[in-house]
Design a protein that fits this description.
This protein is mainly α. It has 17 helices and no strands. Helix 1 packs parallel to helix 7, helix 7 runs antiparallel to helix 14 and helix 11 packs parallel to helix 14.
């Protein structure tokens, strides 16, 4: 008995340390990424157009999304730890390239391609799979919510730090500092225990025994998976536009540059609260319906924000509301993927869902830059955010969240066939 208790204690301690390292890495990765909007005003003063900067951020988003399934395959095959180490170093190198080379090469290669690849290996796509495998099923939604919530806290510190460095020194100094922060993620990954603890009751149903190719074909024919993937486009579309263009929009409306940094910090703080709350709710209520409500509520708050005169008060209320809903999708989407398809290929299957999110991110940030350069306002982009959000709600609410085997048994019963469980 004493040996069993000791083994259990070691597993809890090892798992707790792994979750702590995961939270720190996500905090740093997300905090840097969500602060990039602060660099547009100083670069615009040096002649960089909104479209040029938007293209770099959009390239970052699409690189992140396009590489996520393949980075996920590497993590599923070789483990998350080596992926996190290499990705953290690539992230840091991209920030240094962006700081050292002014112009399209620095923005597109460093800020777009390299940072996009670095984010793919240090953000939720990899860490949610790691966390999901490390805990029992009944604690999975709460654990993912807690880690994602902790990851939200980075913006609270890093966005004001970036603005302080930009104001006190320049944008280059802010990027170099961020490079050092990104490099530290590799060190935290090195400190992680080798291998990934998998409690015996975490093993998923028989779907996990299928080979990857078969599972991908099943997912490609699953209407619920396809609906969730399509709806996730709206999430990226809305959030990347706000993350990149809100500071510039506020300056255009006569607000001080510091308000943009404060708004991003408020988003980070409320994000931590909202993500944890939705992680708890996802363990008790329908995850697909909660996800649909997130899309609906975001859209309602966007309508309210653009309908009222812009002021510090309305901006901070909007930031708080959007922050509460910002990463609340993380425990819900991950919960649905894990419950429907199991965990063996979680990072791969989540990667394809997330690719849709990043295509939306690309479209949202590019639409913002183009409409501002062509019309001098963001009005068209805001209206697009509303339309896309309403469509996402309509797609997500009726999602079919049955497992492939449940769908097969349901189809057989509908046709009057007798089904004998395997």
């Amino acid at each position: 008995m004493s040996d069993a208790v000791a083994a259990s204690s070691r597993l809890i301690s090892r798992t707790g340390f792994l979750l702590l390292m995961s939270a720190i890495i996500l905090t740093l990765s997300s905090g840097i990424r969500q602060s990039f909007g602060l660099f547009l005003p100083p670069l615009a003063a040096l002649g960089v157009t909104a479209s040029a900067y938007s293209f770099a951020i959009a390239l970052q988003a699409i690189t992140w999304g396009a590489s996520q399934p393949f980075v996920g395959m590497l993590a599923d095959r070789w483990g998350s730890r080596p992926v996190l180490i290499v990705s953290g170093l690539i992230y840091a190198a991209g920030l240094l390239v962006m700081a050292a080379i002014f112009g399209p090469i620095g923005l597109d290669v460093g800020g777009g391609l390299m940072i996009g690849l670095g984010i793919a290996g240090t953000n939720l796509g990899i860490l949610m799979g790691l966390v999901s495998r490390a805990v029992t099923p009944e604690k999975r939604s709460q654990a993912v919510g807690a880690i994602a919530a902790a990851g939200s806290l980075g913006t609270i510190a890093l966005a004001p730090l970036a603005q302080w460095l930009i104001d006190g020194w320049d944008w280059c100094m802010a990027l170099v500092t961020f490079a050092a922060v990104a490099g530290s993620m590799a060190l935290f990954a090195v400190a992680m225990p080798k291998g990934e603890p998998v409690p015996s009751d975490v093993k998923a149903a028989d779907e996990e025994e299928r080979p990857l190719g078969e599972m991908l074909r099943i997912a490609a024919r699953h209407p619920g998976y396809l609906a969730m993937t399509a709806a996730f486009f709206a999430c990226g579309f809305q959030l990347m536009f706000i993350n990149t263009h809100l500071p510039s929009y506020l300056v255009m409306c006569g607000m001080s540059p510091g308000l943009g940094a404060t708004a991003l910090g408020v988003i980070g703080l409320c994000n931590a609260i909202g993500t944890y709350v939705f992680g708890l709710l996802g363990a008790r209520y329908s995850q697909k319906r909660l996800l649909a409500l997130v899309y609906l509520l975001r859209t309602v708050f966007i309508i309210a924000f653009i309908s009222l005169p812009v002021s510090p008060t309305t901006t901070l209320v909007f930031a708080a509301a959007m922050g509460f809903l910002w990463l609340s999708v993380a425990p819900l989407v991950s919960g649905l993927v894990g419950r429907v398809f199991g965990l063996k290929y979680f990072a791969t299957l989540y990667g394809f869902v997330f690719l849709s999110h990043q295509v939306g991110s690309f479209a949202g940030v590019m639409l913002g830059g183009l409409t501002f350069d062509l019309t001098g306002t963001y009005e068209t982009a805001w209206l697009a955010l509303i339309a896309i959000g309403a469509l996402a709600f309509a797609l997500q609410w009726p999602m079919d969240d049955r497992t492939p085997d449940q769908r097969a048994r349901g189809a057989a019963r509908h046709k009057g066939w007798a089904v004998t469980p395997a």
